[in-house]
Amino acid sequence: MRKTYICLLAALTFVISSCNDWLELQPENNQVSDEYWTNKEEVEAVLGAGYVRLRETMEQQLVWGEMRGNGLTTGSGAILADIFRINQWDILPGNDFVKWDKFYQVINYANMVIKYAPEVVERDPSFNENVMQSYLSEAYFLRGLAYFYLVRNFRDVPLITEPYMDDQTAFEVAKSPSNEIFQQIKMDLEGAVEYAKEVAPTVWEAKGRATKWSIYATLVDVYLWTEEYDKAIAASDAVINSGQLGLLEGMVNNNNNWYRIFSEGNTNEGIFELQFDFDKSQTNNLVSWFGSNQRYSVTEHTVSLFADYDEDIRGEGSSYLDGDFSVWKYLGSEAETGIPRTYSDQNWIIYRIADIYLMKAEAMVMKGSGSYDQAVELINQVRERAQISAPVSAASTELEMLGLVMEERGREFVGEGKNWYDILRVASRNDYQYKDYLITQVLLTAPASSAPIIRSKLLDVDSHYLPIHIGELSANRLLEQNPYYDNLN
């Protein structure tokens, strides 16, 4: 965590409704000090800044979740050297994409709200206890989600639960072990559920701000990582049975309805989406990254997942284009038309209901062979929605069953920042029981010339985590480099 001056910038923007102009109120001198907290609007402005910072991590979410896996690779266009090196497992501490400062800024804004929002109840009569608790729920969600990204990528990281208020404060903190980070994440998310909203006044708030369902969705994911499968199943059921969400029909009037998840955004399937809207001057770079600059494309392995399923509406013309392997779900206005989007304002989807079905299936697999049929039923629900006529049957071993889940996730979530985490999660549980699975999956898309080198790196589990950036090490003398990178510059 770099000693950065944390402030609310006048240039911050957020998806806003006409009656709720987030971030219009700015602290005097643009500084969030302990004298700032006087009314509800100021609390909401800081909370909104946390969402904005999370939105600014979008390409890191993509790179961290995809470029070490086998779903995406570098494209044929304007490729950044640092992204190429991550994709080739040539990762050094000076790589710009291993910076974690924006995630810690999300955490810091959340810490500010958690500390100061309760005091505002006494100062602003319009800010009642229930509204305050709802804001705290969102802050705990943001903090938990940010730490979840950090712990999956760096393993041991500094655990900060107090706000960093000004640049004069010495703020050097050593790393905490990953089990403590996961414990804090669970405390934050489990505590956030009680006062979280089940419904919201607008669609964008229901999908773009924390709700009970986005918190439960994140908990499902976290419980899979901490190997608490009963809890993962219970949290999955809470989302599935919420009455607020559901799988979209695959085809409607011969149109690919699944594609609406991306072309429109904020569908009934979406649980938590980073919001963009051209009409509010909120755009992103997805069209540039996947189209005009061709920074990313799907791998031949991804294409092969659809090879036996010509009827799968998620394949060619939807998730990707044949030939140039472009990720069409981020580029097209409709599936299988070749007609591009007018604007680059697609939402970035972090959780949607198909994710819950397949995470629950994974938890069922880990419960033992007696639950394999239930896992297969969930997989087949996702396949049926994709118009695949042939159901899968239960396999005989745990790893084969996990393979069924992972292959379906590979088809469903192309380019959605999940592929590497799926591989690492399967491999690392039960003290790296399936490390060979990770090596095999990564090498599926490795160039033949570099495969032996990559394999030798992957044998060391410390290489599965990113290095701490050299700038962070310089600013925080209590930090120690992650073990694999000790002697790398």
UniProtKB/TrEMBL annotation:
Signal peptide span: 1-19
Which keywords describe this protein according to UniProt?
Answer: Cell outer membrane, Membrane, Signal
Q: Indicate whether Translocase appears among the record's keywords.
A: no
One Pfam match, by short name?
SusD-like_3
Q: Which domain of life is it from?
A: Bacteria
Give the RagB/SusD domain ranges: 334-485
Transmembrane region positions? Answer: none
Database matches in SUPFAM superfamilies:
TPR-like
| InterPro entries linked | SusD-like_N (IPR033985), SusD_RagB_dom (IPR012944), TPR-like_helical_dom_sf (IPR011990)
Q: Does the keyword NAD apply?
A: no
Q: Which family does it belong to?
A: Belongs to the SusD family.
Q: What is this protein called?
A: RagB/SusD family nutrient uptake outer membrane protein
